[in-house]
Amino acid sequence: MRLVTPVLMVLALAVGCAGDGGGATGPATEGAAPQESIGEVLATINGTPIGSEAFQQEASRKAPANNESLSPAERDEIMQKLIADELLYQESLRRGLDKDPKVKKVMVNTLLRDQVYTNVRNTDFSDEELKKYYDSHKDEFIVPEKVQIKRILIRVTDDRPDDKAKAEAERILAELTKDPAKFKELAAQFSEDPYKRRGGDVGFVAADGKPGLDKAVVDKAFTLQANQLSEVFKTDEGYNIVLVAQRRERVERTFDQMKGAVLRKVKNDRLKDLYDQYVNGLKQGAKIDVKTDKVNALEIKAARKAPSLDAGLAVPSGMEGAEGEMMDEGEPAVAPAPGEEPH
Predict the structure, then answer these.
(1) pLDDT for residue 11 is more than 60
(2) Is pLDDT of 324 > 80?
(3) Cβ-proximal residues to 26 (8 Å cutoff; 6+ apart), any chain
(4) Cα Dmax for the chain
(5) What are the sequence ranges of the domains in the chain?
(6) Which residues pair with 149 in a beta bridge?
(7) Average pLDDT over residues 111-121
(8) Which run of H or E residues covers position 295?
(9) What is the mean pLDDT of the segment spanning 277-295?
């Protein structure tokens, strides 16, 4: 039978459970940071103590509002829960579930939250500081001109050489010229790129392009007016037909309009600095041996993954799992800062 509960226990307890033991402090491991006092030892489970601090924390959630003392039966119920938690945690470790990449990521993000993210709050930044940043980085807060691109791609293959691929694209264009409303239908039927399942709709794209999309397609789209079809044109991928569904003009927004985005950017920059400082401190106290020759000799195969249809916002490397604030559609591509919820 597949054991699910220990996985959940590792996710919940792997970072802090060991510190809930007893004696003056929990059991230390080589290279680990000193653990906080866990109070008086109330029980031991396979040699691991359960301290009064952990018991108090759990009991405080069950204490009556009128401050009446918990009964012996209620106290035993709390202790049995702590025992169960510790046993499940130990069993999870015995099964090696703490080595699961997903569990490791939870542990890393919990550590970063405690050591980095909680050290920066929205209230740390004054309006004057935000305005100064906005004034010196206005280009970052401009929404560039964009076009909504719809595309049909016909590839050149061994079974369909260049002349046949071009003829197929010309046939589709002739049909679209008669009835442009059929673009979605024809793209879904004939196009050979990842956007065919969206009827060829690539979305809104700025002039500097979009990851995974041939820049020649973007350049062609920017020569077209709204609701205008391109001629058939060739790129490295094959023969293309492009329709510009809409155009959005360049927008320069005021500080008041962009204050939230400015805050996220400034906060994210500070978090990145703190993250780098914290990791560099860990590196200084660690023994690191990288086999560079073996790293460089590894054969890397690209993941067979379609380009993102809705490109996400970047966060600093190592902060990918952090909580953050997402921006409204149309805001410039400023990375949301991980950290606490908005105030």
Answers:
(1) no
(2) no
(3) 18, 19, 20, 35, 38, 49, 51
(4) 87
(5) 5-100, 116-139+254-302+315-343, 145-249
(6) 203, 244
(7) 89
(8) helix 292-297
(9) 87
Contact 191, 151 (CB under 8 A): yes
Confirm if 213 and 220 have CB atoms less than 8 A apart.
no
Structure token digits, residue 324? 């953050």
From residue 300, give the alpha-carbon distance in Å to each of 292, 294, 297, 306, 327: 15, 12, 9, 18, 34
Q: Does the model's pTM come out above 0.85? A: no
Whole-angstrom distance, CA of residue 332 vs CA of residue 262: 10
DSSP-based three-state secondary structure for 70: coil
Cα angle for residues 299, 302, 304 (degrees, 5° grid): 140
Mean pLDDT of 313-320: 41
Closest CA to 339 of 271, 243, 286, 247: 271
∠ Cα 295 301 304 (to 5°): 145
Amino acid at 127: D
**Least-confidence region, from 41-45, 303-307, 328-332:** 328-332
Q: What is the phi-psi region of residue 318: left when phi exceeds 0, alpha when psi lies from -120 to 50, beta otherwise?
A: left
In DSSP terms, 60 is beta-bridged to none
320 by DSSP, 3-state: which? coil
pLDDT at 307 over 60: no
Tokens of 100: 């699961």
CATH topology of domain 145-249: Chitinase A; domain 3 (3.10.50)
Average pLDDT over the chain, rounded to an integer: 81
